[in-house]
Write a structure and sequence with these properties.
The structure holds 2 protein chains of 2 kinds. Helix content of chain A is 56%, strand content 15%. Chain A has 4 helices and 3 strands; from the N terminus they run αβααββα. Chain A is globular. By secondary structure, chain B is α+β, with helices and mostly antiparallel strands. Helix content of chain B is 52%, strand content 16%. Chain B contains 25 helices and 22 strands. In chain B, helix 15 crosses helix 24. Classes of the chains: A alpha+beta, B alpha+beta. Chains A and B meet through helix 2, helix 3 and strand 3 of A and helix 1 and helix 3 of B.
């Protein structure tokens, strides 16, 4: 379990927005994509994923529409909105600032 | 609409979740897991589709009704986890609401509810203000009633009334019964705006001389005496030996008591027309009560103004400009005047208690909030909105408030019943008191308000908290400590006011118990008798029958002395007469100064011995003073001191209302009205000289007075089998009765104060205890480094002491306001009595120290190792 990390508070939204930046995805796809991109380190717990998706949809950062999955099944796809793209840039900048700061502290000897 | 949309949304969520689980299962299968197992694992990793749906729902916000039901379910689950909290809150709140409901119901029924008459705010009673002889409210004279009717324009009507009593039945063979009678003008029921429910009231002219006698009966008398027989209407009854036709029966709800300035309120059993010709009555005979109704098109102030100008005219024409004025008092004000100060004090006390309770509940809520902080912050972090959390907390507190409200209302109606059972007999409007909807609404309002108040505290508390600090901290956070101290401070200040009020009332009560009532016979039986008008002609026959009654009682075994008078202690049964001593050395020659108003009445031979009133000089009345030619009088020590400061009052001549009598003795002064009022100087004349029909016989016995009652009744019946006995009691009862109202108020306020003290102790304990918990590490280290145990305890106690000192200082300012509320109830104690205030402050300080001592001691017992690990 040491090779898996829990998500830091506040990073889930960022991850969702980022994966959707690459194209529309359904919920399961988002969680798989994050898992792949992070080389299996980051696990999105489903119990957090869907509330986060609904929250983002409510804030009009993403949009949902029913479509057909590559497997030929009906699925709900999420797409990034213009506001979502703007928020992604903002969150990413914040994250880099934060991560850099943490890194700087850790590097200090 | 929302509900419907939510259904659609539910279905969509279902589909989405199912899709997710299917995908997960399919992937697991691809990785080589058996299909069933794959599905099970997929579901497990999901945490249950149903639960998830609920959470997703919550984050979205479902329908109002669904939310409410879910909140209620969640609240009940969460409350069930802390039964101690629930029990404390519900009990505290229920008791507070019960106290509030019962006291408020009494106050509302008596002070605020309109009287049950047509347009009651226009009803007044009028008095003669005779300030120059020291009588601010005297009865009205007949000629004054006539003039008011003729000359005033602002009033719809004036009804004169006079209370008395009469013997019902008797010589027709039925059981004789003494009944209370109000003789009233024929227009009485019209003026009052309430009247008989069966039959009719009095017609015009039925109060004229020569009109056939008629009567209206109270429902109570009609049921008790005549079995509620409706055939009684139009039939004659025997009233004082006179055949009188019953023309009406009053409803059960009918109440009217015109209280004299001295007497106690009592509802009449029989109303009959007043038969005197008012215009022919003596202009110095102040003997009528007067009820007046202001006309609907005239304002009450305008009516008062008109009375003022009429007063000036009468002052000039009749009273020789001595300052006469009519004193109009609204009927409602008049009826409740005697109990108003006590009720207001009780209302204030219960309000203070409620405030203290609210502070306590708020502290409880804060503590609970601190404990739940982590739960709330975590819930918010996983996506529950602020609004949802707030609403859920409010649901929880409103549930608590509703439960306590219901319980409190139930307890309150029980308390009210108890209260009325304990209330003194003279409580006005007693039958109109009940838990009414208004009171219940106020009560539930309080419960909900307190609920909202308690609900808001944790919300603000959790809003300020941030997840990272909460998750890292092990002990509850310190935030809220200031608010909590503030609440305890408020409790201390409020309790100081309540306790000070209680202390002042207690001090007054103790002082009153020490007052010498002027007599020593505690174990004396008193018997109220009224000699029948029909059987005994006014004058000597009345005096003679009382002599026979007393002789019969004196012959009973164990009886040591017997006597009778109207002027028994606490009875208020005296006439007021102008008193003058022509030969007094204190006379100035100015009659205004030399004539005093005294309480006067008849007494029989042996009365003072029977009651144990000291004879200070001369002798008391004896058998030689029996007939109407005995022109002698007894004066009390107050009168003797005023007119004969050097002594030698015996043998002097006194004029009482112009009649010259010789003083044969000086007796002790008794408390005629109540323990707290010294009252006027008292003068007695022989019963033979002033042969009143109604007397109270005092029987002193070596035995238990109550045990004598049966024999006394038989002895009286032997003298006259038709003699009704109005009442029997003991002097001890009379003393108790005169203190009853005070005792009740003291018990109630005292128990409120005790409750307040308990709440304060809990509050201080809580604050100190949490301080000690927060500083556990510090104390552990200090103890490990060898700090002095005493010093540590003192350093803990310093906090509460500061808190208490500040609270008392604030409370002290409040006690001056509180003192004003109870001022009218105090006796011999000033509202800012330093001794009382000091004792109260000391009590509070001691209680606070005691409450802090246990947590403080805990501080010294901290194991340093535990303390260091505790963070």
């Amino acid at each position: 379990m040491a090779d898996r990390a829990d998500l830091l508070q506040g990073t889930l939204d960022l991850l969702i927005l980022k994966t959707l930046r690459l194209g529309p995805l359904h919920g399961w796809g988002i969680s798989k994509r994050v898992q792949q991109l992070s080389q299996e380190v980051l696990q999105i717990h489903q119990g957090s994923l869907y509330p986060a998706l609904y929250r983002l949809e409510e804030r009009r950062l993403i949009e949902a529409a029913w479509g057909i999955s590559p497997e030929g099944r009906r699925a709900k796809f999420y797409t990034l909105t213009a506001a979502g793209r703007a928020r992604l840039l903002e969150e990413r900048a914040n994250w880099r600032l934060f991560a850099g700061a943490v890194e700087a502290v850790l590097k200090a000897t | 609409m929302r509900f419907f949309r939510s259904r659609v949304h539910d279905r969509e969520m279902d589909a989405e979740m199912r899709f997710h689980v299917d995908m997960e299962a399919a992937e697991l299968e691809r990785m080589g897991v058996a299909p069933d197992e794959a599905r099970r694992r997929a579901l497990a990793s999901f945490g249950g589709v149903q639960r998830f749906k609920e959470e997703g729902h919550e984050a979205r916000g479902g329908s109002w009704l669904e939310d409410l039901l879910r909140d209620a379910r969640y609240s009940i689950r969460s409350l069930a986890r802390s039964p101690g909290y629930v029990v404390t809150v519900v009990l505290t709140l229920a008791l507070g609401i019960a106290a509030n409901t019962s006291i408020f119901s009494v106050a509302n029924g008596i002070l605020f509810k309109p009287l049950p008459y047509r347009d009651p705010a226009r009803l007044m009673v009028l008095w003669d203000g005779l300030d120059w002889i020291g009588v601010p409210e005297a009865w009205i004279t007949g000629p004054e009633v006539v003039r008011l009717r003729r000359e005033s324009r602002s009033f719809e009507g004036f009804a004169a009334l006079r209370n008395g009593s009469a013997t019902l039945g008797g010589s027709d063979g039925s059981e004789p019964q003494q009944v209370r009678v109000s003789a009233v003008s024929a227009n009485f029921f019209q003026v009052l705006g309430s009247g008989p429910e069966r039959g009719r009231g009095f017609g015009p002219g039925e109060d004229q001389p020569g009109a056939p006698p008629v009567a209206v009966l109270s429902r109570k008398l009609w049921i008790q005496r005549f079995g509620g027989d409706s055939a009684l209407l139009g039939k004659p009854i025997l009233l004082d030996g006179k055949l009188t036709t019953v023309v009406g029966i009053l409803p059960a709800s009918f109440r009217f008591s015109a209280q004299s300035s001295l007497g106690s309120p009592s509802d009449a059993d029989v109303y009959r027309p007043i038969v005197d010709t008012l215009a022919a009555m003596s202009p110095v005979n102040h003997s009528l009560g007067l009820l007046a109704r202001v006309r609907a098109d005239v304002t009450v102030p305008a009516a008062r103004a008109e009375l003022q100008s009429l007063s000036r005219r009468l002052d000039a024409e009749v009273y020789g400009k001595q300052g006469f004025k009519f004193v109009p008092v609204l009927l409602q004000e008049r009826m409740v005047r005697a109990v108003r100060p006590a009720l207001l004090a009780l209302l204030a006390a219960v309000a203070l208690l409620i405030l203290i309770m609210c502070a306590n509940l708020a502290v409880l809520a804060l503590v609970r909030a601190a404990r739940r902080e982590r739960e709330l912050v975590v819930r918010r972090a996983i996506g529950a909105g602020q609004g949802r959390i707030t609403r859920q907390l409010l649901t929880e507190t409103i549930l608590l408030a509703a439960a306590s409200g219901a319980m409190g209302a139930g307890l309150g109606s029980l308390a009210l019943r108890g209260l009325l059972a304990l209330a003194p007999a003279g409580l006005p409007r007693r039958s109109e008191i009940g838990i009414d909807l208004g009171v219940l609404a106020v009560t539930l309002g309080i419960a909900v308000l307190v609920g909202l108040g308690m609900g808001v505290a944790p919300v603000f508390h959790s809003r300020r908290s941030d997840i990272s600090t909460v998750l890292r901290e092990k002990s509850p956070s310190r935030s809220g400590g200031r608010l909590r101290q503030g609440l305890v401070l408020a409790q201390l200040a409020l309790s100081m006011i309540l306790l000070a009020g209680t202390g002042l009332l207690l001090g007054s009560f103790v002082k009153l118990l020490r007052v010498d009532p002027g007599y020593t016979a505690q174990e004396a039986l008193t018997i109220d008798l009224m000699a029948s008008r029909a059987k005994y002609a006014t004058g000597q026959p009345v005096a003679d029958v009382f002599t026979r009654y007393q002789d019969a009682l004196r012959a009973l075994p164990g009886v040591t002395a017997v006597g009778a008078s109207t002027m028994l202690p606490f009875s208020g049964g005296a006439d007021q007469s102008g008193v003058f001593f022509p030969a007094s050395p204190a006379n100035t020659g100015n009659r205004e100064h030399d004539v005093m108003l005294g309480d006067t009445g008849p007494a029989t031979a042996g009365y003072f011995a029977a009651l144990g009133v000291p004879i200070i000089a001369g002798r008391e009345f004896d058998a030689t003073d029996r007939d109407s030619t005995a022109r002698v009088a007894l004066i009390d020590e107050l009168v003797a001191k005023r007119y004969f400061p050097g002594g030698n009052a015996v043998g002097q001549v006194v004029t009482i209302d112009g009649d010259s009598l010789q003083v044969v003795g000086v007796v002790g002064h008794v408390r005629l009205y109540s323990l707290q009022e010294e009252g006027r100087g008292q003068l007695y004349v022989p019963h033979g000289y002033l042969p009143y029909r109604g007397l109270t016989i005092v029987v002193q016995t070596e035995r238990n007075a109550i045990g004598l009652a049966g024999e006394a009744r038989r002895a009286l019946r032997e003298v006259d089998p038709e003699q009704p006995i109005i009442a029997m009691a003991t002097m001890r009862d009379a003393l108790r009765g005169s203190l009853a109202e005070r005792r009740l108020v003291l018990i109630l306020v005292g128990s409120f104060a005790a409750a307040a003290l308990l709440l304060v102790a809990l509050g201080v304990y809580g604050v100190t205890s949490s301080t000690v918990t927060q500083r556990t590490r510090e104390f552990g280290i200090r103890m490990a480094l060898g700090a002095d145990r005493r010093k540590v305890v003192l350093s803990v106690l310093a906090g509460p002491v500061r808190l208490v000192t500040l609270g008392l200082a604030i409370g002290l300012a409040g006690t001056f306001a509180g003192g004003r509320v109870v001022r009218k109830l105090l006796y011999g104690v000033s509202p800012s009595d330093p001794l009382t205030l000091g004792a109260v402050a000391l009590t509070l300080l001691l209680v606070a120290l005691l409450a802090s001592y246990f947590p403080a001691r805990r501080a010294t017992r901290v194991d340093p190792m535990v303390a260091l690990r505790s963070d």
